[in-house]
Design brief:
alpha+beta, Aminopeptidase, 5-stranded mixed beta sheet, 5 strands, globular
C-alpha cells in the first residue's frame, strides 16, 4: 500500500537511504563517501512531512516500509520582474528526488507503483511535468524510467582534472 510517510517511518526510511548511499558509493567512490547517518534528522523529517513543497510517499506492507519516493514541488515563480531575464517558461514541476526499493523487495512492481502514484499526485496538483536526474553509470535505473515513459531532457557532462 502506498501512503504519505509518517514520523514513525523515519527509522525505516533512514535505513533505505543508507542503501541508496551505498549504491552511489559503489558507482562513484570519487564523489560519494559513506555517511555516518542520513543528512536528515528526525526533527527535519517531521517538518518535511508537513511541508507543501516536498512530499514523501512510502510503499508499506503492514508496518514494513519496502520503498519510498521523495518529491519536491516547484511552483511557477510569481515574480514577473524576472520574466524579462528568463529564457524559460515558468512551469509547475514535481521533481522526483529519489525512488528507492529495498533490495529484498525488488522485481515486484513497487518502484513502478510508486512512480505511477507520484504521476497521479503531480497531475492532481496541476503540474506541467515530472523531472528527475539519474547518474550516468546507473543504466538500470535510467532504463526503468524510460520504460515508464520518461525521456532525456538534458545531459550533464564532467571533466575530471
Amino acid at each position: 500500500m502506498i501512503r504519505e510517510a509518517t514520523v514513525s517511518d523515519f527509522r525505516q526510511v533512514n535505513e533505505l537511504e543508507m542503501q541508496v548511499a551505498s549504491k552511489h558509493i559503489t558507482m562513484r567512490p570519487d564523489i560519494f563517501k559513506a555517511p555516518q547517518k542520513w543528512s536528515v534528522d528526525e526533527e527535519y523529517f517531521a517538518e518535511m512531512l508537513e511541508s507543501d513543497e516536498e512530499k514523501l510517499f512510502v510503499y508499506a506492507e503492514g508496518e514494513t516500509v519496502l520503498g519510498y519516493c521523495k518529491v519536491d514541488i516547484e511552483e511557477p515563480d510569481d515574480d514577473e520582474s524576472e520574466d524579462d531575464y528568463s529564457t524559460q517558461h515558468d512551469a509547475h514541476i514535481v521533481w522526483i528526488n529519489s525512488i528507492f526499493v529495498a533490495e529484498q523487495a525488488r522485481g515486484k512492481g513497487i518502484g513502478q507503483s510508486l512512480f505511477e502514484h507520484v504521476k497521479t499526485y503531480a497531475k492532481g496538483r496541476g503540474a506541467d511535468r515530472l523531472e528527475l536526474c539519474v547518474w550516468a553509470l546507473n543504466k538500470e535505473e535510467q532504463g526503468f524510467y524510460e520504460r515508464l515513459g520518461m525521456t532525456v531532457q538534458s545531459v550533464a557532462l564532467e571533466l575530471i582534472i
